[in-house]
Design a protein that fits this description.
Chain lengths: 164, 240
C-alpha cells in the first residue's frame, strides 16, 4: 500500500484532518524548512522524563505512549498520542525538562523541529501559534481527566488499575 | 481606587507596576491597549466562586491580586485541590480556547481582583496579537506540566506521609526558603484543604502533622511552619 505520509508536508494528503498540520501555505513552507523527518521502529524511547527538552516531534504516523515514573521505578501510563499530535510541546515552550517519557507503540514517522527553530516559527506565524494554543488546550483537558481518574478513584484498587 | 474588600484596585493594565513580573501581563503596548478595551476589572470577596467545573466557558479570568483555589470534584463530593493560583495566572484558559466546559472549579481564598474577558473577545484578541498568543501557549504549557506533576504525585506516591512531605518541601522552595537550613512557610490552608491537595482525609493530615512535630521534623509557630529537619522530611518524601 502506498504511504499517504510524505517527506514534504505539502504532499501529505492527511494534512487537512490534523489540527496542527492544517496550516496556511506560507506557514507550511516555513515549517517544511525547519522540520527533519525520521522513521522510528516500535519500542523506541524518544525521550525520557527529566531530560532537557531540545525539540518537538510531530507524530505523522503511528502511536506513542507517554508515561510517568517515580524514583523507585513505578510507572503510570499518562496517555497514548496519535498522528497529528505533538510530543514535547509543553516542555519545549516552558524551556524545561520533559515531564513524561515517550516510547513508540508502533513503527512511527515523526517530524522533529528544534526548540530554537520552533520558537522563531511560532513568533512569525500567528496561525501556527493559534494551532499550538488549541492543541495545548486539548492536551490539558486530557491531563485533567487523568488527574480526575487517578486522584478521585474511590479506592486504592480502582487507582491501582491505572498503574503498571 | 479602594474596593469594598480593602484592596487597591488596579484600574488600568497600562499603569500596573506588577505587569513586568507576570508572564501573561507583560505584553507590548498595542496588545495591552486592546486588552484594556475588552477586560472588566472586578473585585471578589474571599469564598467567591469564579466558575464551576462542568459549566460552559464564559471567558478567562486574569488574577491580579489574591489567591484562587482550583479544584476538581467527584460525584460523591470528594474534592481534590489541584493548585492555589497566584497573581498573574490566567484561569479558565483551556476551556475558553477549546470551547469545552470548565475542567475545574475556581474559588477565591483571599479578597481578589480579577480581570474578566469574554470568550469571543479573548479569541479575537489572540488572533490579532501574536505576542499574547505566544504567552497563552506558555501558560498552557506550564499548566500541562503541573497536571503531569499532579498525576505523578497522586498516582505514584506510596503514602499520605510521602505526599505531605513533598508538598511541604515544594511550598518551602516556592517561598525562596529552600536554601535555608530551617525553611519557614506560611500555612495559609486548613488541614481539610491540605488533605484535599494530597488526596487524603483531614484526620490523616492532622495525625501526620502531630507525628512530624513529635519527631521534631517541623515546628509550628502560629500559622508559620518551620522545617527543623529538612533531611528527615526529604527521606519521607522519597520513601516509596
Amino acid at each position: 500500500m502506498e504511504s499517504r505520509i510524505h517527506d514534504s508536508c505539502f504532499e501529505c494528503t492527511l494534512r487537512p484532518d490534523r489540527l496542527f498540520c492544517d496550516l496556511p501555505a506560507d506557514a507550511l513552507e516555513a515549517f517544511n524548512l525547519i522540520k527533519c523527518k525520521a522513521q522510528q521502529p516500535r519500542g523506541t524511547v524518544l525521550f525520557r522524563q527529566g531530560q532537557p527538552a531540545h525539540a518537538i516531534q510531530v507524530v505523522c504516523d503511528g502511536r506513542v505512549r507517554l508515561s510517568l515514573g517515580s524514583e523507585s521505578g513505578k510507572r503510570v501510563v499518562f496517555r497514548t498520542v496519535g498522528p497529528g499530535e505533538i510530543l514535547g510541546l509543553s516542555a519545549v515552550l516552558a524551556g524545561g525538562n520533559h515531564e513524561v517519557s515517550a516510547e513508540t507503540v508502533d513503527a512511527c514517522s515523526l517530524a522533529t523541529v528544534k526548540r530554537k527553530d520552533l520558537l522563531r516559527f511560532l513568533r512569525q506565524h500567528r496561525e501556527a501559534c493559534l494551532q499550538v494554543v488549541n492543541l495545548l488546550s486539548q492536551d490539558l483537558h486530557v491531563a485533567y481527566d487523568r488527574v480526575r481518574s487517578i486522584g478521585l478513584g474511590r479506592t486504592r484498587r480502582s487507582r491501582a488499575v491505572h498503574i503498571h | 481606587m479602594l474596593s469594598p474588600y480593602g484592596m487597591d484596585i488596579i484600574e488600568s493594565c497600562l499603569t500596573c507596576k506588577m505587569r513586568t513580573d507576570r508572564i501573561f501581563c507583560d505584553l507590548p503596548t498595542s496588545a495591552l491597549q486592546s486588552f484594556e478595551g475588552i477586560k472588566y476589572a472586578t473585585a471578589y470577596p474571599k469564598g467567591a466562586v469564579l466558575f464551576v467545573e462542568g459549566q460552559a466557558p464564559r471567558g478567562i479570568f486574569v488574577l491580579c491580586k489574591g489567591r484562587v483555589k482550583l479544584s476538581i470534584c467527584a460525584t460523591d463530593g470528594k474534592t481534590l485541590i489541584l493548585k492555589i493560583a497566584e497573581p498573574g495566572e490566567v484561569l479558565g484558559l483551556s476551556a475558553t480556547v477549546s470551547g469545552k466546559a470548565y475542567e475545574l472549579t475556581a474559588e477565591t481564598i483571599d479578597p481578589c481582583q480579577v480581570n474578566f474577558v469574554k470568550r469571543e473577545d479573548f479569541l479575537r484578541f489572540l488572533k490579532d496579537h501574536a505576542d499574547a498568543c505566544f504567552k497563552v501557549a506558555e501558560q498552557l504549557s506550564e499548566k500541562y506540566n503541573n497536571a503531569c506533576h499532579e498525576v505523578r504525585s497522586l498516582g505514584l506516591s506510596h503514602s499520605a506521609a510521602e505526599k505531605l512531605a513533598r508538598l511541604l518541601l515544594e511550598w518551602s522552595s516556592k517561598n525562596g526558603e529552600a536554601a535555608k537550613q530551617e525553611p519557614r512557610l506560611k500555612l495559609a490552608l486548613t488541614h481539610e484543604e491540605i488533605a484535599q491537595m494530597i488526596g487524603t482525609s483531614r484526620e490523616t493530615v492532622t495525625r501526620l502533622f502531630a507525628d512530624l512535630k513529635k519527631r521534631q521534623i517541623v515546628q509550628a509557630k502560629g500559622s508559620t511552619l518551620v522545617i527543623r529537619n529538612k533531611n528527615a522530611l526529604r527521606v519521607i518524601a522519597s520513601s516509596n
